[in-house]
Automatic annotation (TrEMBL):
<dbReference type="InterPro" id="IPR027974">
    <property type="entry name" value="DUF4470"/>
</dbReference>
<dbReference type="InterPro" id="IPR039304">
    <property type="entry name" value="DNAAF3"/>
</dbReference>
<feature type="domain" description="Dynein assembly factor 3 C-terminal">
    <location>
        <begin position="165"/>
        <end position="462"/>
    </location>
</feature>
<protein>
    <submittedName>
        <fullName>Dynein assembly factor 3, axonemal homolog</fullName>
    </submittedName>
</protein>
<feature type="domain" description="DUF4470">
    <location>
        <begin position="2"/>
        <end position="133"/>
    </location>
</feature>
<dbReference type="InterPro" id="IPR028235">
    <property type="entry name" value="DNAAF3_C"/>
</dbReference>
<dbReference type="GO" id="GO:0120293">
    <property type="term" value="C:dynein axonemal particle"/>
</dbReference>
<keyword id="KW-0963">Cytoplasm</keyword>
<comment type="similarity">
    <text>Belongs to the DNAAF3 family.</text>
</comment>
<dbReference type="GO" id="GO:0070286">
    <property type="term" value="P:axonemal dynein complex assembly"/>
</dbReference>
<dbReference type="Pfam" id="PF14737">
    <property type="entry name" value="DUF4470"/>
</dbReference>
<dbReference type="Pfam" id="PF14740">
    <property type="entry name" value="DUF4471"/>
</dbReference>
<dbReference type="GO" id="GO:0044458">
    <property type="term" value="P:motile cilium assembly"/>
</dbReference>
<keyword id="KW-0970">Cilium biogenesis/degradation</keyword>
């Protein structure tokens, strides 16, 4: 619910690859063109058709849970010769997730004057994947929450700080929910969020009478399931510790003691405090999938006798350093090998977690500098109710999106009418259940149902899944001009 189960994608790059488009380099006048190429089906030849890149690309991310795809798409934007305008529509079923995504995007696009690159990355990882945070991260969350509160209640402040954001698609009741989330993050004694207690309840309920032997259950899920499904980079120590207490990203120099209130959902005012649903997120896979499974540096994937040199935590750090550097500088990133620490086979000493005081973060610094500028990109947060409109094929979304991504837990909303939101030349990406601990039969059944639905909607696979027999973290299908 709070993080996706597939690796981050550059959706513009995926769109180009799906239709085999090769943009030309901008000419001396600054005009940019697109090379017309031949599009053929993977299974049989088709007549030549003309494919072009629209001046504006509309991208839907339905149930993304986190901003991983947004971050990578924006970070890699400078690498493309032809850069159309991007309208990215973020649709999640819970307003508190939208609030959390705004915070994480705020970290990614935080002014370089506020944080150096490494501090920014560790701050992001702390908020993104840890149930308990460092005091400094807790202070940032509260301070940034106040700034975000001003932004969603004052259009002038929103335009001054983050013109990239657009919340016009959210209803007033949903903006009220955003305000409640930002207020709940403030360090007040009455804003109680006992995340350790909530986490233990979830784990006990999941394991039942196996709870006393939970370490064995954790090892089984990782070694016998996830490592067989493209998650070899996750180390046993970091996975077991996350399953035990919800802290995924650990560095020896940090102490985690403050509750991460961005995991609170279902907030309702109750006098001076709030009611909420406790912790209702994932307790089986973890936040390692988005940035921590693969890197462009192959050395980080080496292992000896089954023990990785680098943890998924270290790969996550390295990838975020690359993306945040590119967002700030629009230049290629060169990684300092000494930056990544080889903790994969090292058994870190996990001491008792500190006791925190909820109200010891008063007088905080304000993080109200304008966000890093990403030209010609707009992030639209839309109402959770729009998923029902898309499911029913609402007229206002018809033939609107060039790229659409749907998370695995939103599959029940997919109907033949849903695909009416795709333009004549569009890419559709569906997240699979590969990186869950469900049985193979359930994974196979899910993919079969998805492929049958795509067939009914007359979508073509980007690759021939019948020939390529491998693990599919996502399924990529396209709607081509030749289909019509």
């Amino acid at each position: 619910m709070f993080w996706g189960l597939s690796s981050a994608l550059d959706f513009y790059e995926e769109y180009l690859k799906a239709f085999k488009l090769q943009p030309d380099v901008a000419d001396a006048s600054g005009e940019q063109g697109v090379q017309i190429v031949e599009i053929t089906d993977n299974e049989q030849s088709e007549p030549e058709v003309e494919a072009t890149i629209p001046e504006t690309l509309n991208i839907l991310i339905c149930g993304g849970a986190d901003p991983r795809h947004v971050i990578k798409t924006m970070a890699k934007r400078y690498t493309h010769n032809y850069r159309p305008k991007l309208n990215i529509y973020l649709l999640d079923g819970c307003v508190e997730i939208a609030a959390r995504n705004m915070l994480l995007l705020g970290v990614a696009l935080e002014s370089p004057e506020a944080f150096n690159l490494i501090s920014k990355v560790h701050l992001f990882m702390d908020i993104y994947g840890n149930t308990l945070m460092r005091p400094s991260s807790h202070q940032y969350m509260a301070a940034k929450g106040r700034t975000l509160l001003k932004m969603v209640t004052d259009d002038d402040e929103l335009q001054r700080l983050a013109p990239i954001l657009n919340i016009e698609g959210m209803k007033y009741k949903e903006r009220d929910s955003l305000e409640m989330a930002f207020n709940f993050w403030q360090p007040k004694p009455q804003h109680v969020f006992k995340i350790e207690e909530y986490w233990e309840r979830r784990v006990r309920a999941l394991l039942g009478n196996r709870y006393d032997h939970r370490q064995g259950a954790f090892d089984w899920d990782l070694s016998m399931t996830l490592k067989d499904r493209e998650a070899q980079q996750i180390c046993s120590q970091e996975y077991r510790y996350w399953r035990e207490c919800g802290i995924a990203f650990v560095f020896p120099e940090y102490e985690h003691c403050k509750p991460n209130k961005t995991f609170a959902v279902g907030l309702v005012r109750n006098g001076q405090t709030y009611l909420h649903r406790g912790y209702v997120g994932d307790v089986q896979t973890g936040p390692f999938c988005a940035f921590g499974l693969r890197s462009t540096e192959e050395r980080m994937h080496k292992s000896v006798h089954g023990d990785n040199d680098y943890r998924s935590t270290d790969v996550t750090e390295r990838n975020l350093l690359e993306f945040f550097h590119e967002l700030q500088t629009k230049t290629a990133y060169e990684h300092d090998e000494s930056r990544s620490r080889r903790y994969g086979a090292v058994q870190l000493q996990m001491g008792a977690r500190l006791i925190y005081d909820e109200s010891d973060a008063q007088g905080l610094e304000n993080y109200d500098k304008p966000w890093v500028d990403v030209p010609d990109v707009k992030l639209h947060f839309v109402s959770p109710e729009e998923v029902l409109q898309l499911k029913g094929g609402a007229a206002r979304w018809r033939s609107f999106f060039d790229v659409a991504f749907v998370a695995q837990n939103y599959f029940p909303f997919l109907t033949k009418e849903f695909f009416g939101c795709l333009r004549e030349q569009a890419l559709f990406v569906l997240e699979t259940k590969l990186l869950t601990v469900e049985r193979k039969e359930q994974l196979s059944s899910y993919e079969s149902k998805a492929k049958e639905l795509f067939k009914q909607a007359e979508l073509q696979p980007v690759i021939n899944y019948q020939v390529i027999n491998g693990h599919n973290m996502v399924l990529k299908y396209k709607k081509s001009i030749s289909n019509n």
